[in-house]
Amino acid sequence: MIFKKSVIETMQKRQSIRTYETQKITTDHLKEINDYFNEENNLIGPFGKKGQIELVEVTNNVTDKGIKLGTYGFIKNPSAYIIGITENNQYSLVDFAYTFQKLILFLTELGIGTCWMGGTFNRNSFEKEIQLDERRFIPCITPIGYPKQKQRVFDKAVRLVVKADNKKSWDKLFYDANFERTLTKENAGLLEVPIDMVRLGPSASNKQPWRLVVSDDRKVCHFHIEHTPNYSTKLGYDMQLLDIGIAMCQFDLACQELNIKGNWTVEEPKINLLNEQTEYIVSWHLKS
Hints:
With 288 residues, this protein is of the alpha+beta class. The protein folds into two domains: 7-156, NADH Oxidase; 170-286, NADH Oxidase (3-Layer(aba) Sandwich). Helices cover 28% and strands 17% of the residues.
């Protein structure tokens, strides 16, 4: 494990940070971040797809190349940006989000603030800064820096608008054997904490589109997405696939900390879907 502290506790306390201190990221922290990037396994998700991550330091949102990176006023005083790059297909996006969330949690443990950004930044400005393969694109970025102790009124307003502090209850997200019966914490068995970490994970506009179905014997957990109609269509990719990758990361890392061993497979369960917006993605199997 790359984490020195409880990753479950890190998941519980992590918040999106939009306003940062003017202090630059320390040399020691930059070394730890670059060491993380250089470990190839940190960039490969459960489906074996490898994403690309670039760190770009900025001063007043301007890079060393003189390129001004645009975030439409959402971010103040970032020390740098981490730019995510991957191919625009289902499992590449899911894998990328898994690895990016793992990075986000690593940075949180270091005391570095982050903010998932998928739609509220100027992609053109970021594309000018990096070498982008024609088969790849930038699905998201995160600013990084040390969180300002007193967040702006704007930051609080954003959290209020997206209902960032209001997470859906179990009966809206998790199901027992099929979509006709909801799952309770008391009946989740070994998987209670990993499933709750899914509930606490970040998602685009806090839509929380993950829908989990746990088998009767509590040995299999099927991950589905309930798509929000027309969400992110103007961006040219399905942003909510990133949310599933985040959910898988939260679940998997919690299982690892609790020494619950399992593996990922694509094996669609023979159950009726919740509705026409619901799509099966992947299953997690408990190892005997």
